[in-house]
């Protein structure tokens, strides 16, 4: 690798810094790019990825570290690198373009654009040389350079046409009021049930992503419909993921996805956004089923986040890489010999039987092939005595693995992903996990408040080593709004609800399109198109998160304007929900919340023994019930009134402002929550 540094050397992003010594004359995204492109009359080659992206590393090694490839790129184009996690709004525009051109997308995203930023050609990973009828990266660059030189007017015409199409796609769904909400919810339930993999759990085939909003929606629909089939889908999926190689059987926490349909072999990145959402899902699943193992998964995720992703001061880093020592998965896999060196005779028999250890191995990185590597995955559920023996072996393997060279860590702190972590911990506290989870949620919030919140209370996007950006992104506002709502329910501290009220108003003022509907993803007016996100993938869309958070805020505060704002977003999503409900599971969660009764549990009186009351609430699965504590400065006038009535701790289970007989004993509270009065 060259010792000469390009213009990425002064950046903050770990991904951009990875490319700072490439011979490619990379520039970071910014106004200087477009001024240079126009001055030199060159197209821009835009390469978008992220620091833990395996195929981004492959393309860097094969192409961007090559002097000959760099010479072609530098001669024909202005090369620009973008970290998609720092600038998801930029990524969304150009990912839409590549998907429109090719029908698929992914990272690294490779796209060629005019000096005005308008795309005309693109794809994802390109090998350095052509093979099997697929063009090599150098060939593509030469051909595009020639087209720009010889057929520029034609190329510009393509770019104009594609840009016009992107602007239309950026508006998202065509809207159209929700109409019959229950019909949409049932259709969404049925579509997801059809995609359910009865053999292996999960939804669809390979590759398999956790996509936590999907099983969470089905879990809450099980409660609403009492259809045991739905609970079994979620239970089976949760157990299959926990048993598979997608779950790190030694170090805990989940990898990003499984490359197969059986959850056996992961793509080894570990992302905060997956683990944060899965923490909440498993917490609810544990209470819904009454089983202990989902709580063990929650504890495992928490240990992983606190051991490996914690940032000094309370924040959470973004991700860990799939690769170490130049090979995918090397940090995580085991040879049979390595396990035998640490295991007793009985432990080894169990490891072979339960984890399926073989001499041949179960995984091989095609770019660094080495035989005998095993991804540990459970072949069956262990009995109690086997679990104890397996835990002893797990600890020994974890200790040995600590001596290995770790994958690189992307230590930037993102407001949106840390908000997901706050929600994950808060929901773990809410659903029977105890206040240690609530305290950790508060620690993360304090980090955000001290480092990533402006003086007016609005969130920035990225912090790293004391450096912050000034981006204004919907995903940060909506994620933080949901985090504050969840944090209030977990701790019953009114200050979080008060902050949520202010942030909700700022979010709507900044992002809402009152004419066209929905919320814009970004305020950056320099992009070629403004985008609205209407798809819930591995991360839920900003619009869906906003709708759910606003609906819950409206119920907790008795403020109709928040509920109406949630309904406006859902009306904008209406056409997408009717046509393709399985594409918007988080949106369906919001629709469920708006459509159900207005149940909430109001606690009043002296805040004594809060943990015991919280534990009692968490024993009963009532996903329709929101929790608040009555104080004299509560945003709801009705709740403020209850604050003055209770001399002892008193629980009021209310539907709107109509409450059942209050209780003052924890045992009576459990009974109260178990009495379900259905209104439909």
Average per-residue pLDDT, rounded, comes to: 94
The number of domains: 4
Task: Please state the second-level CATH architecture of the largest domain.
Answer: Alpha/alpha barrel
| Largest sheet data | 5 strands, mixed
Strand tally is 19
Unreliable stretches (pLDDT < 50, length at least 5) are: none
Class per helix and strand makeup: alpha+beta
Helix content bin: 40-55%
Amino-to-carboxy terminus distance:
67 Å
Strand content range: 5-15%
Identify the overall geometry: globular
Number of helices: 26
Reported by name, the CATH topology of the largest domain is Glycosyltransferase
CATH hierarchy, class of the largest domain = Mainly Alpha
Q: Which radius of gyration do the C-alpha atoms yield?
A: 26 Å
Give, in spatial order, the strands making up the sheet with the most strands: 1-3-2-4-5
Care to describe what's here?
The model has no long low-confidence stretch (mean pLDDT 94). The longest helix has 19 residues, at 152-170. This protein folds into four domains: 7-170, 3-Layer(aba) Sandwich (Glutaredoxin); 181-322 and 410-595, Glycosyltransferase; 324-406, no CATH class; 599-674, 3-Layer(aba) Sandwich (Glutaredoxin). Helix content is 50%, strand content 9%. The protein is built from 26 helices and 19 strands. The strands form six sheets. It has a five-stranded mixed beta sheet, sandwiched between helices. Strands 17-16-18-19 form a four-stranded mixed beta sheet, sandwiched between helices. The N and C termini lie far apart (67 Å).
């Amino acid at each position: 690798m060259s010792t000469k540094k390009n213009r990425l050397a002064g950046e903050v992003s770990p991904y951009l810094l990875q490319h700072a010594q490439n011979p490619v004359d990379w520039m970071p995204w910014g106004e200087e790019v477009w001024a240079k492109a126009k001055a030199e009359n060159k197209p821009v080659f835009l390469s978008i990825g992220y620091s833990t992206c395996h195929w981004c590393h492959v393309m860097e090694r094969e192409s961007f570290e090559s002097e000959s490839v760099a010479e072609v790129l530098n001669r024909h184009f202005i090369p620009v690198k973008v970290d998609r996690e720092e600038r998801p709004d930029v990524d969304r525009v150009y990912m839409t373009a590549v998907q429109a051109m090719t029908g698929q997308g992914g990272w690294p995203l490779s796209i060629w654009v005019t000096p005005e930023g308008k795309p005309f050609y693109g794809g994802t990973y390109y090998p350095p040389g052509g093979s099997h009828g697929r063009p090599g990266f150098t060939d593509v660059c030469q051909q595009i350079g020639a087209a720009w030189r010889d057929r520029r007017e034609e190329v510009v015409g393509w770019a104009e046409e594609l840009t016009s199409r992107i602007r239309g796609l950026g508006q998202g769904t065509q809207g159209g009021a929700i109409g019959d909400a229950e019909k949409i919810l049932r259709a969404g339930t049925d579509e997801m049930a059809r995609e359910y993999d009865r053999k292996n759990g999960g939804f669809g085939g390979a590759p398999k992503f956790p996509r936590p909003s999907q099983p969470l929606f089905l879990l809450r629909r099980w409660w609403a419909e009492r259809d045991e089939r739905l609970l079994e889908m979620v239970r089976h999926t949760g157990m299959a993921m926990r048993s598979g190689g997608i779950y790190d059987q030694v170090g805990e926490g989940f990898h990003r996805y499984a490359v197969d349909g059986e959850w056996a072999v992961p793509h080894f990145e570990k992302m905060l956004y997956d683990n944060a959402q899965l923490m909440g899902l498993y917490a609810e699943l544990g209470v819904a089923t009454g089983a202990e193992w989902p709580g063990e998964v929650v504890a495992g995720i928490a240990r992983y986040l606190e051991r490996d992703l914690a940032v000094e001061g309370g924040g959470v880093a973004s991700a860990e890489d799939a690769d170490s020592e130049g090979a995918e998965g090397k940090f995580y896999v085991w040879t049979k010999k390595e396990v035998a060196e640490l295991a007793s005779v009985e432990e080894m028999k169990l490891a072979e039987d339960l984890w399926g250890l073989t001499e041949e191995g179960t995984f091989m990185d095609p770019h660094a092939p080495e035989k005998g590597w095993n991804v540990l995955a459970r072949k069956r559920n262990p009995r109690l005595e086997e679990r104890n023996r397996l835990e002893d072996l797990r600890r020994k393997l974890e200790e040995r693995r600590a001596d290995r060279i770790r994958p690189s860590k992307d230590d930037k702190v993102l407001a949106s992903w840390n908000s997901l972590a706050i929600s994950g911990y808060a929901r773990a506290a809410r659903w029977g996990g105890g206040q240690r989870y609530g305290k950790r949620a508060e620690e993360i919030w304090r980090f955000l408040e001290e480092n990533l919140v402006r003086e007016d209370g609005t969130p920035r996007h990225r912090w790293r080593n004391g450096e912050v950006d000034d981006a204004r992104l919907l995903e940060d506002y909506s994620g933080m709004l949901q985090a504050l709502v969840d944090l209030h329910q977990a701790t019953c501290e009114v200050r979080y609800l008060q902050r949520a009220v202010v942030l909700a108003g700022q979010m709507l003022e900044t992002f809402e399109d009152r004419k066209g509907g929905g919320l814009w993803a970004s305020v950056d007016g320099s992009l070629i198109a403004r985008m609205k996100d209407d798809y819930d993938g591995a991360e839920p869309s900003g619009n869906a998160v906003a709708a759910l958070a606003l609906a819950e805020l409206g119920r907790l505060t008795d403020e109709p304007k928040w509920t109406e704002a949630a309904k406006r977003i859902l009306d904008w999503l209406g056409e997408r929900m009717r046509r393709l409900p399985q594409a918007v599971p988080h949106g369906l969660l919001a629709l469920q919340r708006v459509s159900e009764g207005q149940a909430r549990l109001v606690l009043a009186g002296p805040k004594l023994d809060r943990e015991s009351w919280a534990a009692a609430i968490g024993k009963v699965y009532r996903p329709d019930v929101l929790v608040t504590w009555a104080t004299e400065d509560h945003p709801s006038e009705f709740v403020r009134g209850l604050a003055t009535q209770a001399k002892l701790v008193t629980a009021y289970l209310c539907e709107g402002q109509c409450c059942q007989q209050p209780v003052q004993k924890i045992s009576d509270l459990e009974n109260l929550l178990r009495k379900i009065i259905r209104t439909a």
